[in-house]
Structures are given as structure tokens and as C-alpha cells.
Amino acid sequence: MLTVGIAVMSLDGCLTRHGEEGAGFASREDQHFFAETLGTFDCMVMGGAGYRASRARARVAPAPFRVVLTREPEAYTAEAQAGVLEFRSDEPAETIRDLARRGFARCALVGGARLLTASVKAGLLDELWLTVEPVAFGSGLRLFEGRVEIPFELVGVESLGRHTLLIRYRTA
Amino acid sequence: MLTVGIAVMSLDGCLTRHGEEGAGFASREDQHFFAETLGTFDCMVMGGAGYRASRARARVAPAPFRVVLTREPEAYTAEAQAGVLEFRSDEPAETIRDLARRGFARCALVGGARLLTASVKAGLLDELWLTVEPVAFGSGLRLFEGRVEIPFELVGVESLGRHTLLIRYRTA
């Protein structure tokens, strides 16, 4: 299974604007790219905060099979739909391995840092696709947690809009 | 006077690898670019930490007229050379305005966050040139201090090496 981390961030590496949940700062171009690219995946994994933000704001997209990692899956019983939207409290790596075992071919990891860090540490992250918006926030959540040193290789860079870049890396 | 912030960072927006001083992680391609591009400026401003790191490590370069901002300029009396290397404890914006008054045409700001944040808040930052290295650190100093929201416009992106990008922005 190909596993790809997908994120939008400010040019100074903030996944959120200060303490806000979600990526409300994402440009229309990124939202369009995100919706379109998700359509090329057959499953995706996200954190509870990302799920709550995506219900209300930008980066909502017609989604493939979604797994939401949360400490309280029982809080979402009313929203869960078998085969469409699952809520689990597993470790991220265990969830990704389970999706591979179930036969999924392309898995999008749409944050946050805990999910991406756990997947890269378990050797389960193949690529990282970063949208870079032309704004600096100074403070906000980061892409990875803790003191890590993760080498990547550049796959390519393209323009999503006049001022928005999409940079693709693979783990080295 | 054209004022350009120049920095090298990890793909997740860390200007330092965790708590280390300086940019020892900068690729040979970035070091070459940095040395070459500094030759196109007639003055540069840096912080004390950056100066101490550049004495010993990567990103040392044949420099234009250098101003080092430090709380203790008197600690560097032995190293100061009039017209070559000055140590000052001024506010960053005051230093930049003074360089413009003295007739300098191109000023490079080579970090850190305090200098870049003060210059952008004073409306004195024209461009920002970011080298992005293919590595993630999870923690380290950021480009700007505090909770800011600074819009930029993309000027262009180019490859410095196989996996290293140079992204140029101007303040919007």
C-alpha cells in the first residue's frame, strides 16, 4: 500500500494559524487540489481534531474510506458508517498496517503531527505532499512531533496557483 | 535600499536542528548559493548567535559590510573592524534605517527570527529567500517570532541541487 502524507502549511512550516484547529487558511487552489487528489486514494486516515475541523471548514472533500483516530471513538457512534467512516483509538502504525492487510492500495494521511510522526517512525510513510501557502504565522502546529531527523528526497515541485506551491517528497 | 531576508530551513520550517546554533545542516549547494548571493549585497545584518555559529561552521562566506546585533557589543571589541564588521545593540529597524541613510543599496538580513520579525513589522522587509532542505526536524527555531500573519507573494522557485529548493517571496 502506498502511504502519502498530505498537508497544507504556511511558508514557515505552520500547519495551523496559531492555536486554531484546521487549515482555514488554505487557498481555494489547495482546496481544489486536495479534493481532487483525495479522489485518487481508496482510504485516508486523519486525527480527531482534523475531522472536527473538516466538518465545519475548508479542506472538506468528497472522501474515500475514512478512518479517524481519536481517544474517544465512542463519542462518534452516531456519525460512524461501516465501510465509509470509522472511528478508532488504535496506534497510527497499527491502523495503517490494518488498512494494507484489508487490501487498500493508496492511503492518504491527512495529519496531524502525531499521525505523520508515528507513521514515519514505523517506516510506513512513502511520500509527503506539502502545499505551501504564501503566508507566515510564526506559531502553530508543526508537521512532526518531537526532535526528529527525517531525510527526504525531492520528487518535484509545481504551482497550484499564482502564489501557492505543491512540493512532493519521498522518504529517503 | 532593498532589504532581503535570507534563510535556510528544513522542509518543516526549522531554521535550526532542534536546539543547535547555526545551520550546520545546510547542503553544499545552499552554502555555495549563500556565499555567491551575499556577494551581490553591499551590507548584511545578523544576530549574535548567527555570527558565533558562522565563525565556526557552515554558511561562512566572504561577506559584505556586516552588522551584528547583540546585547553585548563590547564583548566583541577585539573583532570589530570599522567599515567591515560592526557590533551594535540597536533595535533591528533602527539599524536597517541607518544603513539606508548611509547609502547602502542592498541589505541582506541573515536571521534570526527576532531580526526578521522586527523588520517585517516595521515595513522594512522587501523579499524573503528561503532555501528548503529535504529533511524534517520537528523542533527548532522558527523564521518569525510570536503570533504573526504576514502575507507574501511568490516570486519564483528554483532548484539549488537535486533535492534542495530556493523559494523567493516578496512581502505583499
Helices and strands, with pairings:
The structure is a homodimer of 172-residue chains.
Chain A: E1 2-10, H1 28-38, E2 43-47, H2 48-56, E3 65-69, E4 85-88, H3 92-101, E5 106-109, H4 113-121, E6 127-133, E7 135-136, E8 150-159, E9 165-171
Parallel strand pairs in A: 1-5, 1-6, 2-3, 2-5, 3-4
Antiparallel strand pairs in A: 6-9, 8-9
Overall description:
2 copies of one chain form a homodimer. The first copy, chain A, is 23% helix and 31% strand. Chain A is of the alpha/beta class. Chain A has one domain: 3-Layer(aba) Sandwich (Dihydrofolate Reductase, subunit A), CATH 3.40.430.10. Chain A has an 8-stranded mixed sheet with strand order 4-3-2-5-1-6-9-8, sandwiched between helices. In chain A, strand 8 (150-159) and strand 9 (165-171) form a beta hairpin. Strand 8 (150-159) of chain A pairs antiparallel with strand 7 (135-136) of chain B.
Number of domains of chain A: 1
- Helical content of chain A, roughly? 10-25%
Beta strand % of chain A: 25-35%
Placed side by side, the strands forming the largest sheet of chain A appear as 4-3-2-5-1-6-9-8
| Form type of chain A | globular
Largest interface: A-B, 41 and 41 residues
Q: Under the CATH scheme, which architecture of chain A would be assigned?
A: 3-Layer(aba) Sandwich
CATH class of chain A: Alpha Beta
Please identify the structural class of chain A as seen in this structure. alpha/beta
Under CATH, the homologous superfamily of chain A reads Dihydrofolate Reductase, subunit A
Low-confidence stretches of chain A: none
Give the oligomeric state.
homodimer
**SSE order of chain A, as H and E?**
EHEHEEHEHEEEE
The end-to-end span of chain A amounts to 17 Å
Number of DSSP helices of chain A?
4
Largest sheet of chain A: 8 strands, mixed
